[in-house]
Amino acid sequence: MIHHKHVILDHFMVNDWVIDCKRFTATRAQLQARLEPKAALILQYLASRPGEVISREELFQVFWPNQVVTEDALNRVIFTLRKTLNDSSTEPQYIATIRKSGYRLVAEVKVPPSPKISSKVLAFSSLLVFLAGALFIFSSIKPTANGLPLKLKLTGELHRLTYSTKTKHMPHLSEDAKHLTYLELDKKTGNTLVLMSVSDDKKVYYHDAHLEFSFPIISPASSGVFSITKNLRSPISYAISLTDFENSRTRPIFTLKSESTGLSYHPQSKSLVFTQRAAPFVAHKVTLYDPLLSTTKTLSSPPTGQSDTQPIFSPSGKKIAFLRSKSSNELAVYSVTLDGKEQQLTQFQNQITAFDWLDNNRIVFSNEHGVFLLTYEGKISRLFTPSPDQQVTSIQLAYKTNQLLLTLQHASSIGKAVDFTTKRQTHALTLSNGLDSEFAISPNAAKMAFASTREGYKTLWFRHNNHLRSINNTRFDDIYDLAWSDNSEQLAAVVKHNAQYGLLLFNFVTDQFDVHWQDKIPLHVIGWDKHNQIWHAKLTGQDWTLAQYNPIQRTTTEYPAINAYQARFTLNKENLIYIDATHQALWTWDFNSAPKKAVLPQNVNLNRNWDAAPHGIYYVSAKGTLNHFNVQSGVIQRSLTIKNAFSSKHRPQARLYGLVGTHKVITYNDFWLSSLQATKSPQ
Asked: What is the C-alpha separation between 430 and 470, in angstroms, rounded?
């Protein structure tokens, strides 16, 4: 575990090298070298305890938690560091190997001098683009009462709140920015609720073996935290609960009809807003709860097949912002008033990682490109672009202090496979500091295709005969649903570019591809049938329509009676298994008679996270475990007990006696606090 008594610096010197762990660079004189993120963080960890021997076991525990990796993983990182720093293993000037023990940093560690800028600011130099000058005037901002426009000023001071390699998510800052609560995932204790004092970094932990927490928010008492709780002894038992940290207890205050995808509290009205399903498998809707009257009121009305998540009160409590999805990569921010009047605030886009109200008329939101300011009239201005190695995964405003909380995360993803005929462990298919995803192995097992950001943007990649290459001119905003033809010579995939979807067909023999563009209609590729035609689902109006595409004749046959949101062929391709977007029920269709509905357990949530299997389906749970659901018996069995083995965001694919999928690796994710000021100035 990390030794918190030692200071972890983001900007420091080892001998004459200046190390920047936010930009992942090493600089000496006029030479600047790039550090791999994992290598930079391990050097940072060694530098926090110079002269001490740090065991290999500790480094594996800290930097590869809950992962099955070989000894060579650490060897490669140390080798890379020594090569970058021009160090020698036999005569070390930086990192010494202590035989049968570990490693010791023998170099001198010091903080670079900076007479004009505080060391705290230097420590966060990778974000100074966000803060430097930090004066933005937006023509779209409403004028104030005296006619003077507002301009946003970021003060230039960032404070890092957490230093931990443990997975932390769902942070919530109190309105006065004095307390922070969040969830921490630990392989021993599981889901733990944390309450932290921002000023002195003191933390209180709360864990209940029978409860699983989500969406924590600080109550006005500051020693209490509201959250959505799931009773693990009853899989479909959910409630809004209040955890009292002083007395170490949690009590339910309102029982929910289903799981929830968000929670917000308004201290003045003492109201809570959350989402829930009105019935099993139907869409989530924004729901208002009045604790004083013990009444609920449904506020949002998503169209058929769409769902609402992450509701957040405006400062006045008169509006609620929320996220609406019509597919896994079509998200938009909406708002709704207390009398149910909705307004769409953003266009639908690939990803929206977080959002919050800046005031009653403006919203700050983040996606894969950075942080943006959004006016209620729909005008957008960019506030912050993270480095290529970072992503903003959450943001929140503390209204009373005008401070912005950000979660900065570095994550990569790789391909992993599991062989069901041997000991059930996962094996890495790729190694990358980028985002590899959507893995598909050809039927003859000779080729593998996947999407990756290794070149700084998403492209299509292939591995064949141990040769890895990208496909020229396949740069798109998104690539997913990769599917091989039966003869292993052609690949189909969905691509998205400038909000337009297309069906990509790549011929491995000719090394050429073509895109059959479908305008702005979301698509899901299913696969190739026995006649070498491609089946897919497309959103037509509010319904998902099943379609069959003939790549030779370039014709499409539609089956409007089949409302298939996500579908897979059975292994023999004699049947189609699909879920519908309306009720997320599981159906089986033999292409001739009427589809048959299977009873799906309420705690099984399917989207892109499943594939056909013998007698049923394999699916990846929200915790990353792999499970098998038998359609005939209704029995669920754990196929792989390792947590976080696969990402539930990406589509897994069963092949022969195994399965391939995407595994997400979080190198770090920590919380940062920045002051934010809205001032007046003459036009």
From this structure: 14
Stronger pLDDT, 492 or 669, i.e. the higher one: 492
pLDDT in tens, 386-411: 776 678 999 999 988 888 999 988 88
Q: Which CATH architecture has domain 11-110?
A: Orthogonal Bundle (1.10)
pLDDT value for 124 = 33
Overall pTM surpassing 0.70 (yes/no): yes
Q: What are the residues facing 224 on neighbouring strands?
A: 244
H or E, element range at 497: strand 490-497
271-301 b/e (C-beta count within 10 Å ≥ 16 → b): bbbbbbbeeebebbbbbbbeeeeeebeebbe
Positive or negative, the Cα torsion across 278, 281, 286, 290? positive
Q: Report d(CA 544, CA 536) in Å as an integer.
A: 10
Q: How far apart are CA 311 and CA 215, in angstroms?
A: 11
pLDDT at site 280: 67
pLDDT at 668 (0 to 100) = 76
Beta carbons of 380 and 393 less than 8 angstroms apart: no
Say if CB 211 and CB 233 are below 8 A apart.
no
What is the CA 135 to chain-centroid distance, rounded?
30
Residues 291 and 274 sit within 8 Å (Cβ to Cβ)? no
* Measured distance CA(20)–CA(240) in Å, rounded: 43
Cα(111)–Cα(122) distance, rounded to whole angstroms? 9
Burial class (CB in 10 A: 0-12, 13-18, 19+), 408: buried
DSSP string over 534-548: EEEEEEETTEEEEEE
> Over the chain, what is the mean pLDDT?
84
Q: Residue ranges of the domains in the chain? A: 11-110, 168-256
- Which pLDDT belongs to residue 6? 59
* Torsion from C-alpha of 671, 677, 678, 679, nearest 10 degrees: -170
CA 115 to chain centre: 39
Flag whether pLDDT at 329 surpasses 90: no
Q: Taking the CA atoms of 475, 476, 482 and 488 in sequence, report the sign of the dihedral they define.
A: negative
C-alpha 6 chain-centroid distance:
30
Q: What is the pLDDT of residue 2?
A: 40
- Element housing 528 (H / E): strand 523-528
Burial class (CB in 10 A: 0-12, 13-18, 19+), 231: middle
Confidence check: pLDDT of 85 > 70: yes
In this prediction, residue 22 has a pLDDT band, given cuts at 50, 70 and 90, of confident
**Nearest to residue 43, comparing CAs of 2, 6, 12?**
12
Two tokens, residue 197? 């004092």
